[in-house]
Amino acid sequence: MSEVEERKPQEPLHERFVQVLELLQRHRLIEESVARQGSDHQDRVDALVQQQHLAELQQTLAELHPADIAYILEALPLDDRLTVWQLVRVENDGEILLEVSDAVRETLIADMDEHEMIAAAKDLDADELADLAPELPRDVVQGLMESLDDQQREQVRSALSYKDDQVGAIMDFEMVTIREDVTLEVVLRYLRRLKELPDQTDKLFVVDVAGLLKGVLPIKRLLVNDPDCMVHEVMATDPVTFSPDEDGSYAAQAFERYDLVSAPVVEKSGRLLGRLTVDEMVDLIREESESEALNRAGLREEEDIFASVWKSLQNRWAWLAINLITAFVASRVIGLFEHSIEKLVALAALMPIVAGIGGNSGNQTITMIVRAMALDQLSTGNSSRLLRKELGVAFINGVIWGGVIGLVAWLLYDSWSLGLVMTAAMTLNLLLAALMGVLIPMTMVRLGRDPALGSSVLITAMTDSGGFFIFLGLATIFLL
Amino acid sequence: MSEVEERKPQEPLHERFVQVLELLQRHRLIEESVARQGSDHQDRVDALVQQQHLAELQQTLAELHPADIAYILEALPLDDRLTVWQLVRVENDGEILLEVSDAVRETLIADMDEHEMIAAAKDLDADELADLAPELPRDVVQGLMESLDDQQREQVRSALSYKDDQVGAIMDFEMVTIREDVTLEVVLRYLRRLKELPDQTDKLFVVDVAGLLKGVLPIKRLLVNDPDCMVHEVMATDPVTFSPDEDGSYAAQAFERYDLVSAPVVEKSGRLLGRLTVDEMVDLIREESESEALNRAGLREEEDIFASVWKSLQNRWAWLAINLITAFVASRVIGLFEHSIEKLVALAALMPIVAGIGGNSGNQTITMIVRAMALDQLSTGNSSRLLRKELGVAFINGVIWGGVIGLVAWLLYDSWSLGLVMTAAMTLNLLLAALMGVLIPMTMVRLGRDPALGSSVLITAMTDSGGFFIFLGLATIFLL
Lengths: 480, 480
Description:
The structure is a homodimer of 480-residue chains.
Chain A: H1 13-37, H2 43-62, H3 66-74, H4 78-87, H5 90-99, H6 102-110, H7 114-121, H8 126-132, H9 138-146, H10 150-160, H11 167-170, E1 177-178, H12 184-194, E2 203-207, E3 213-218, H13 219-224, H14 231-234, H15 248-258, E4 262-266, E5 272-277, H16 278-297, H17 309-336, H18 338-343, H19 346-374, H20 380-413, H21 416-446, H22 455-479
Parallel strand pairs in A: 1-2
Antiparallel strand pairs in A: 2-3, 4-5
Helix pairs in contact in A: 1-2, 3-5, 5-7, 7-9, 8-10, 15-16, 17-22, 19-20, 19-21, 19-22, 20-21, 21-22
């Protein structure tokens, strides 16, 4: 772990990025001209200039923080990305791999040989190694595991035994533990002997001989209390703790609510296992909000924006296929009423309005509900009250906006009865949208699914088919 | 600021919430029965039981962390919320007001008199007061400002002079500053005299006599280095700093990238103004991802899920109105081809498929691009490459899925030419969706707007009107 405080990395980042891009472009230009000419009379000069550019690029990269290099790698197309990746210092490789997105990491690892992978991974902590392991070849992981000592190997195994989003997979093992029956003076001297403290250390963990957590000693208290005090006099005895099989997002909410920087992870017996830190929680919150946005749009996962067309297709097909089916169903609903449309073709022009407004309104409701669910704000007692409110909003919207569009339809097609049917259909479809907007996410949760998953596609399917059916049905009954 | 570490608040939170709900329900039942009977023969007994329930509720609330009370308040309908709010200890009022969402805060403040407001706000720090001030009545703010000392008043004014999302409005003023020409031993003794350190203190700020920032002393280094070292030997001289007019989300990204816990805010001259802390950044990241989700669905702002129907209508009308206009435009596009639909009514049934798949695919593209923009991954050199990739994906999707649906149309309506038109229209509309999915957010950014704002409504408007026009236009040319 490098000490970020030593540098001032963010200000010149954009500048540096532009600099990297320029150097890459010059590099490409020469490469292309060599490829075009095919001759060798200029080769020597070109090769020299080429080398000079690469050396300059390497120098620029060496001055950058690993997180910044990760950022630049993500923003580069594949060929440029690999050129830069080759120039990065080996000792930074591991940390960069941890920082980049999954999709980009895949492209980087595909470009490394076994030797490079081992060199990149060997300086990582146990929890970091566990993060990387599933994406490395089996032999490499085997080799890395053998190079670890028993305790570390146990830690990697432990981290790998939990699901990605469980606390046990997110926690790290870099904690400072102390005993309760010593003075703060002794603790201070002990810390000095450690030479370095783990990042994000805002508290020390107080354990007994058996490794049971007795409390935590916030660094703040260590600093302001009399050095002659005993640890057990000053420590907090009932701190916020997490268990390794808890959900990571639950822990993130607790970090957010109680403004934590680090917290101990203990198993049921009370034995200290590891710790969670706020930087991991920040990453988790960011990832969650992103995957929610992607899920809602029907993207399976994070996509490298320069992914190949083929990869992108795979990522997008699942929901497109579902959407194709729902669209087909809506089309067949219209098919039922082809006879009516033949008689009154205005219906074809007006029906998308009913479906479209219903979809928009339903999306508003479902977004609200999914959000309240994510924050755990919905209890059984609340939901009927909530449904009543949403239905009320839908009804008023239906009467008012449906009335407006009904008026327009009347003027446009010179038929007040068509206008009335339009208003009635809008109101009914908005009520359907509100009902489904509440029921769909609740059903998803009851089925043990993520309520955000495909919520937009599902609600739109309901309001499309429903809207067409309601409008064309009413029209068939009352107008024909 | 209470010390969270002293309690173990999160585990029993759900339990406590259920407990609060039960007590509230019992309270309501008695209230209702009194209201129903109208008689007074049971009044004395009821009143006693009533009081007992409220006392029990108050006791439960007193044991909860302010952040937990805020959570419970947000999850309660308005009447229950105000009952609970009345029972909360006054000294927690300020902190709870800071924790709840804007919409809920409004309902709580509306229930307080001036005296209560002043009592709630008077123990807050300057930056917290500035957060609350815009929502308090002018007289109350005036009164509070007069009770502050000069320095604090200046801090509140400074915080109020920045926009909500600027660093200057987010920073706090609780920093520990030291001089560079003293030993660590002196620093340690100084800290002990302070009795308490601000939350999230992971570094001390080193300033000169003029208040210019010379560096930062991470607590980690203070603890592991020899107490006889001088501060300037150990401090980091070029730390990550922010300026007060920077964008808060930019700072949040830096916190995330460099795993910061706190960072100094300095003005251009180098003078130290305040500090940013990771807990504020976590809140910011969460808020941003929420407002992005809300914006995309066409909700103006965060909505209290138990808001009145009237409030909800106001929140949702802006985008519903825009959607009504775009739906009307799409309807008029269909109107242009009423003659064609009259001749071949199958067109009416098939056209929503073309529009719907286009909308879904366009939403996938725009979600990707908006995300890449939020991470600052799009440079001018990249965008044409990206457009080419999206067009490639769209073309393949169009040919394959358009082919499938074209085949179905052929079988269903027994017309291979109709099937061909369907496939061609699908492909063209997917290409339009890809083009607009890239161009809309880029144009938004060029106009200085948030690229996520209404992106879903805009792309759907394009793919609806465009899809109807392409499909019905091709059909009119080739089939009739």
